[in-house]
Amino acid sequence: MDAAVVAAAGEADAEAMSDWRYWLIVALWVVWGGYWIVSAIGIKRAVQKEPLLSRLPVLIGLVLAPCLLLAPSWFGKLVDRSFTWQTDVTYFPGLVITLCGLSFAIWARHALGANWSGRVVIKEDHELVTAGPYRWVRHPIYTGALLGFIGSALALGRAGGVCAVAIMLMIFARKISLEEKMLEQHFGERYAAYKRSTHALIPLIW
Fold it and tell me: What torsion do the CA atoms of 18, 24, 153, 40 make, to the nearest 10 degrees?
């Protein structure tokens, strides 16, 4: 068989492999997003909200980060550069981290129930949830989502993924600060005691 034909076949196989690996990561995020949309039905009405102007940078970041993660080529060659060898050594650990992170976030979302909101708010009859993953961290949805971004960035191996992780970390740090101020005002000593017994985002560290 001609060497050029063999090389072309090898490149085609590599491209096909790359495609299914990429789309598997995308599929995990689509399933996660679908659950988020469905579970938002029937949530409690908000009685105190973060101002829209304060939320605007978060909204921009929440659009920008997934694009950097999943479509880095939109932002030029520098962002689309590989920082791994894109082999099984990096892909499958990244895939596992993504799956674990998104599953952890779904568990936390289920535990939060009707008290959840995408904005920093206080709900009607707002409950202080301390069950499920909230026993260990106060913001497990952010923990899980951040793990999802880290895992996907490792699996896909593009510089855009690293930028996406940095953006999400900044978003979560800001939201944690705002949420905790609001929850402390609403729950008082109950929330202060809960803070003393848990970590904000990363168990045993932060």
Answer: 160
